[in-house]
Amino acid sequence: MKRIRHFFNTLQTNWSEDPAARGAAKMTAGAILVAEGIFGVARRAVSRGRRRGKNSAGGLLGGIIGVVVGIVFIVVGTAMGPEDYPDQVNTQGEIVDMQTSRNDEGQTMYTPVYAFEVDGQEFQFSPSMRSSSRPNIGQQVDIAYSAADPRNARRTDGLEGKVHWMFIGAGVFVLLMSLFSLAVSVALIVLGIMLFRSGRADRKSAGETGSFLSDLMSIASKASSGEIDVDQTAVGQPGSSQGNPQSA
Protein backbone atom coordinates (compact mmCIF):
# COMPACT_ATOMS: atom_id res chain seq x y z
CA MET A 1 0.00 0.00 0.00
CA LYS A 2 2.87 2.36 0.74
CA ARG A 3 4.21 1.95 -2.80
CA ILE A 4 0.80 2.82 -4.26
CA ARG A 5 0.60 5.85 -1.96
CA HIS A 6 4.04 6.96 -3.18
CA PHE A 7 2.77 6.76 -6.76
CA PHE A 8 -0.29 8.95 -6.16
CA ASN A 9 1.52 11.33 -3.81
CA THR A 10 3.91 12.14 -6.64
CA LEU A 11 1.08 12.70 -9.12
CA GLN A 12 -0.54 15.20 -6.70
CA THR A 13 2.61 17.23 -6.12
CA ASN A 14 2.63 21.01 -6.76
CA TRP A 15 6.05 21.63 -8.28
CA SER A 16 8.10 24.79 -7.78
CA GLU A 17 8.06 27.58 -10.39
CA ASP A 18 11.86 27.80 -10.30
CA PRO A 19 13.24 25.47 -13.06
CA ALA A 20 16.39 24.54 -11.13
CA ALA A 21 14.51 23.81 -7.91
CA ARG A 22 11.71 22.04 -9.74
CA GLY A 23 14.19 19.94 -11.72
CA ALA A 24 16.09 18.91 -8.60
CA ALA A 25 12.88 17.91 -6.82
CA LYS A 26 11.56 15.97 -9.81
CA MET A 27 14.84 14.13 -10.25
CA THR A 28 14.88 13.17 -6.58
CA ALA A 29 11.29 11.97 -6.62
CA GLY A 30 11.78 10.15 -9.93
CA ALA A 31 14.92 8.36 -8.77
CA ILE A 32 13.21 7.27 -5.57
CA LEU A 33 10.28 5.87 -7.54
CA VAL A 34 12.65 3.98 -9.85
CA ALA A 35 14.60 2.61 -6.86
CA GLU A 36 11.34 1.63 -5.17
CA GLY A 37 10.05 -0.07 -8.31
CA ILE A 38 13.23 -2.05 -8.97
CA PHE A 39 14.59 -2.76 -5.49
CA GLY A 40 11.98 -1.65 -2.97
CA VAL A 41 14.68 0.47 -1.32
CA ALA A 42 12.51 3.51 -0.64
CA ARG A 43 10.35 1.51 1.71
CA ARG A 44 13.39 0.25 3.57
CA ALA A 45 14.65 3.80 3.99
CA VAL A 46 11.28 4.93 5.35
CA SER A 47 11.03 2.03 7.82
CA ARG A 48 13.30 3.57 10.43
CA GLY A 49 12.30 1.16 13.16
CA ARG A 50 13.57 -1.88 11.28
CA ARG A 51 17.11 -3.14 11.46
CA ARG A 52 18.81 -3.07 8.08
CA GLY A 53 19.38 -6.43 6.47
CA LYS A 54 16.15 -7.95 7.77
CA ASN A 55 13.72 -6.69 5.14
CA SER A 56 12.04 -8.93 2.62
CA ALA A 57 12.79 -8.53 -1.06
CA GLY A 58 10.67 -5.91 -2.78
CA GLY A 59 10.21 -4.37 -6.18
CA LEU A 60 10.71 -6.39 -9.33
CA LEU A 61 12.78 -9.07 -7.61
CA GLY A 62 10.17 -9.69 -4.93
CA GLY A 63 7.40 -9.83 -7.53
CA ILE A 64 9.31 -12.28 -9.72
CA ILE A 65 10.11 -14.51 -6.74
CA GLY A 66 6.45 -14.42 -5.74
CA VAL A 67 5.33 -15.43 -9.25
CA VAL A 68 7.76 -18.38 -9.22
CA VAL A 69 6.62 -19.47 -5.74
CA GLY A 70 2.96 -19.20 -6.76
CA ILE A 71 3.50 -21.30 -9.89
CA VAL A 72 5.43 -23.93 -7.90
CA PHE A 73 2.56 -24.22 -5.39
CA ILE A 74 0.02 -24.59 -8.19
CA VAL A 75 2.12 -27.26 -9.95
CA VAL A 76 2.70 -29.18 -6.70
CA GLY A 77 -0.98 -29.00 -5.78
CA THR A 78 -2.01 -30.17 -9.24
CA ALA A 79 0.46 -33.07 -9.06
CA MET A 80 -0.87 -34.04 -5.63
CA GLY A 81 -4.46 -34.10 -6.85
CA PRO A 82 -5.77 -37.65 -7.37
CA GLU A 83 -7.16 -38.71 -10.72
CA ASP A 84 -10.75 -39.95 -10.82
CA TYR A 85 -11.15 -43.63 -11.61
CA PRO A 86 -12.78 -44.22 -15.03
CA ASP A 87 -15.41 -46.37 -13.31
CA GLN A 88 -15.43 -44.44 -10.03
CA VAL A 89 -18.04 -45.17 -7.40
CA ASN A 90 -18.57 -42.96 -4.35
CA THR A 91 -19.66 -44.50 -1.08
CA GLN A 92 -19.51 -44.13 2.70
CA GLY A 93 -16.86 -45.80 4.79
CA GLU A 94 -15.51 -45.49 8.28
CA ILE A 95 -12.31 -45.48 10.28
CA VAL A 96 -11.98 -48.96 11.77
CA ASP A 97 -8.42 -48.95 13.04
CA MET A 98 -5.17 -47.00 13.09
CA GLN A 99 -1.48 -47.62 12.70
CA THR A 100 1.14 -45.84 14.80
CA SER A 101 4.71 -44.84 14.03
CA ARG A 102 7.23 -42.23 15.13
CA ASN A 103 8.75 -39.36 13.20
CA ASP A 104 12.36 -38.19 13.34
CA GLU A 105 11.64 -36.19 16.50
CA GLY A 106 10.17 -39.23 18.25
CA GLN A 107 6.59 -37.92 18.06
CA THR A 108 3.84 -40.49 17.69
CA MET A 109 2.18 -40.37 14.27
CA TYR A 110 -1.12 -42.00 13.29
CA THR A 111 -2.34 -43.51 10.03
CA PRO A 112 -6.07 -44.35 9.88
CA VAL A 113 -7.39 -47.59 8.44
CA TYR A 114 -10.53 -47.13 6.34
CA ALA A 115 -13.14 -49.79 5.60
CA PHE A 116 -16.05 -49.88 3.18
CA GLU A 117 -18.33 -52.53 1.72
CA VAL A 118 -19.02 -53.51 -1.89
CA ASP A 119 -21.73 -56.13 -2.47
CA GLY A 120 -21.38 -57.33 1.10
CA GLN A 121 -17.59 -57.67 0.95
CA GLU A 122 -15.42 -55.45 3.14
CA PHE A 123 -12.36 -53.71 1.78
CA GLN A 124 -9.76 -51.89 3.85
CA PHE A 125 -6.97 -49.51 2.95
CA SER A 126 -4.68 -46.94 4.57
CA PRO A 127 -3.55 -43.61 3.08
CA SER A 128 0.08 -42.67 2.51
CA MET A 129 -0.36 -39.63 4.74
CA ARG A 130 0.13 -39.76 8.49
CA SER A 131 -0.69 -37.21 11.13
CA SER A 132 0.00 -36.37 14.75
CA SER A 133 -3.77 -36.17 15.31
CA ARG A 134 -5.29 -39.38 16.62
CA PRO A 135 -8.12 -40.54 14.32
CA ASN A 136 -11.57 -41.23 15.72
CA ILE A 137 -12.48 -44.87 15.39
CA GLY A 138 -15.94 -45.20 13.91
CA GLN A 139 -15.90 -41.82 12.15
CA GLN A 140 -17.78 -41.82 8.85
CA VAL A 141 -15.74 -40.81 5.78
CA ASP A 142 -16.35 -40.41 2.04
CA ILE A 143 -14.69 -43.03 -0.12
CA ALA A 144 -14.18 -43.28 -3.90
CA TYR A 145 -13.23 -46.63 -5.42
CA SER A 146 -12.89 -48.36 -8.79
CA ALA A 147 -15.84 -50.58 -9.62
CA ALA A 148 -13.53 -52.96 -11.50
CA ASP A 149 -11.15 -53.28 -8.55
CA PRO A 150 -12.42 -51.88 -5.20
CA ARG A 151 -8.93 -52.29 -3.78
CA ASN A 152 -8.15 -49.08 -5.65
CA ALA A 153 -9.76 -46.63 -3.26
CA ARG A 154 -9.13 -43.29 -1.63
CA ARG A 155 -10.74 -40.89 0.81
CA THR A 156 -12.33 -37.82 -0.79
CA ASP A 157 -13.18 -35.65 2.24
CA GLY A 158 -11.19 -34.18 5.11
CA LEU A 159 -7.63 -32.88 4.88
CA GLU A 160 -6.50 -35.98 3.04
CA GLY A 161 -8.97 -35.40 0.22
CA LYS A 162 -8.57 -31.61 0.01
CA VAL A 163 -4.89 -30.93 0.75
CA HIS A 164 -4.06 -30.45 -2.95
CA TRP A 165 -6.69 -27.71 -3.18
CA MET A 166 -4.97 -25.90 -0.30
CA PHE A 167 -1.72 -25.83 -2.28
CA ILE A 168 -3.48 -24.70 -5.46
CA GLY A 169 -5.43 -21.99 -3.59
CA ALA A 170 -2.29 -20.70 -1.87
CA GLY A 171 -0.45 -20.70 -5.20
CA VAL A 172 -3.20 -18.75 -6.98
CA PHE A 173 -3.29 -16.18 -4.15
CA VAL A 174 0.50 -15.70 -4.15
CA LEU A 175 0.56 -15.53 -7.96
CA LEU A 176 -2.17 -12.87 -8.17
CA MET A 177 -0.60 -10.77 -5.40
CA SER A 178 2.82 -11.03 -7.05
CA LEU A 179 1.47 -10.06 -10.46
CA PHE A 180 -0.19 -7.03 -8.86
CA SER A 181 3.11 -6.17 -7.15
CA LEU A 182 4.92 -6.44 -10.49
CA ALA A 183 2.36 -4.14 -12.11
CA VAL A 184 2.89 -1.57 -9.34
CA SER A 185 6.67 -1.87 -9.74
CA VAL A 186 6.46 -1.27 -13.49
CA ALA A 187 4.17 1.76 -12.94
CA LEU A 188 6.61 3.21 -10.40
CA ILE A 189 9.57 2.69 -12.73
CA VAL A 190 7.80 4.24 -15.73
CA LEU A 191 6.58 7.26 -13.73
CA GLY A 192 9.98 7.61 -12.08
CA ILE A 193 11.85 7.66 -15.40
CA MET A 194 9.39 10.15 -16.90
CA LEU A 195 9.69 12.38 -13.84
CA PHE A 196 13.49 12.11 -13.79
CA ARG A 197 13.75 13.02 -17.47
CA SER A 198 11.40 15.95 -16.93
CA GLY A 199 13.55 17.12 -14.02
CA ARG A 200 16.71 16.90 -16.10
CA ALA A 201 15.02 18.97 -18.80
CA ASP A 202 14.09 21.61 -16.20
CA ARG A 203 17.63 21.74 -14.85
CA LYS A 204 19.07 21.89 -18.37
CA SER A 205 16.85 24.88 -19.11
CA ALA A 206 18.34 26.49 -16.00
CA GLY A 207 21.88 25.93 -17.33
CA GLU A 208 22.74 22.81 -15.26
CA THR A 209 24.03 19.62 -16.92
CA GLY A 210 25.00 16.14 -15.82
CA SER A 211 25.02 12.51 -16.88
CA PHE A 212 21.58 10.86 -16.85
CA LEU A 213 22.85 7.55 -15.45
CA SER A 214 25.17 9.08 -12.86
CA ASP A 215 22.44 11.40 -11.58
CA LEU A 216 19.94 8.57 -11.39
CA MET A 217 22.26 6.14 -9.60
CA SER A 218 23.50 8.82 -7.21
CA ILE A 219 20.02 9.76 -6.01
CA ALA A 220 18.83 6.13 -5.91
CA SER A 221 21.87 5.26 -3.77
CA LYS A 222 21.07 8.10 -1.37
CA ALA A 223 17.47 6.91 -1.12
CA SER A 224 18.63 3.36 -0.38
CA SER A 225 21.04 4.48 2.36
CA GLY A 226 18.48 6.78 3.96
CA GLU A 227 20.53 9.88 3.19
CA ILE A 228 17.48 11.29 1.39
CA ASP A 229 14.40 11.54 3.61
CA VAL A 230 11.61 10.08 1.51
CA ASP A 231 9.01 11.73 3.76
CA GLN A 232 10.28 15.13 2.58
CA THR A 233 10.12 14.40 -1.15
CA ALA A 234 7.23 14.32 -3.59
CA VAL A 235 7.04 10.59 -2.91
CA GLY A 236 6.27 11.20 0.74
CA GLN A 237 4.12 14.33 0.74
CA PRO A 238 0.94 14.44 -1.35
CA GLY A 239 0.09 17.84 -2.82
CA SER A 240 2.95 19.65 -1.10
CA SER A 241 5.01 22.35 -2.80
CA GLN A 242 8.21 20.63 -3.93
CA GLY A 243 11.40 22.13 -5.26
CA ASN A 244 14.26 22.30 -2.79
CA PRO A 245 17.50 22.31 -4.82
CA GLN A 246 19.40 20.82 -1.88
CA SER A 247 17.35 17.61 -2.08
CA ALA A 248 19.25 16.50 -5.18
Q: What can you tell me about this protein's structure?
A:
It is a single chain. The chain has 6 helices and 7 strands. A hairpin with a 2-residue loop joins strand 3 (108-118) and strand 4 (121-125). The longest helix has 48 residues, at 158-205. It is α+β, with helices and mostly antiparallel strands and 248 residues long. Strands 4-3-2-5-6 form a 5-stranded antiparallel sheet.
Overall morphology: rod-shaped
Strand order of the largest sheet: 4-3-2-5-6
Mean pLDDT level: 81
Describe the main β-sheet briefly.
5 strands, antiparallel
Distance between the termini: 26 Å
State the assembly state of the protein chains: single chain
List low-pLDDT spans: 44-56
Rg (C-alpha, Å):
29 Å
Number of helices: 6
Structural features:
single chain; 248 residues; alpha+beta; two-stranded parallel ribbon; 6 helices; 7 strands; 18% strand; rod-shaped
Quick recap of the structure?
This protein has 248 residues and is α+β, with helices and mostly antiparallel strands. The chain contains six helices and seven strands; from the N terminus they run αβαααβββββααβ.
